[in-house]
Write a structure and sequence with these properties.
The structure is a single chain. The protein is of the alpha+beta class and 78 residues long. It has a single domain, classed as Rossmann fold, CATH 3.40.50. The protein has two helices and two strands; from the N terminus they run ααββ. Strand 1 and strand 2 form a beta hairpin. Helix 1 packs across helix 2. The longest helix is centred in the N-terminal third of the chain and has 15 residues. It is globular and about 30 Å long.
């Protein structure tokens, strides 16, 4: 699977999350979650390589003010 393939899967998840009325909880592999975080903040899929993610850590994606300002609120916390 190429980075573009993983990015496309992440984009589909991001699009679905952004339509949710409430909070969303996701469990997945660290490699996918790193790409998901990169796509959340509009980085290319390869941007996920810059995010270290340990097993059983907590990360929170959210927004600064509204849906037009996605941010990483917490990353890789135990």
């Amino acid at each position: 699977e190429t980075a573009a393939d993983v990015g496309a899967r992440a984009d589909a998840i991001v699009a679905e999350i952004r339509t949710a009325a409430g909070n969303v909880l996701i469990f997945s592999s660290s490699h996918f979650l790193r790409v998901l975080a990169a796509r959340w903040i509009s980085l290319p899929p390869e941007g996920g390589e810059h995010f270290v993610l340990d097993t059983a850590s907590l990360s929170i994606l959210g927004y600064e003010h509204d849906l037009t300002e996605p941010v990483i609120r917490r990353w890789n916390q135990k």
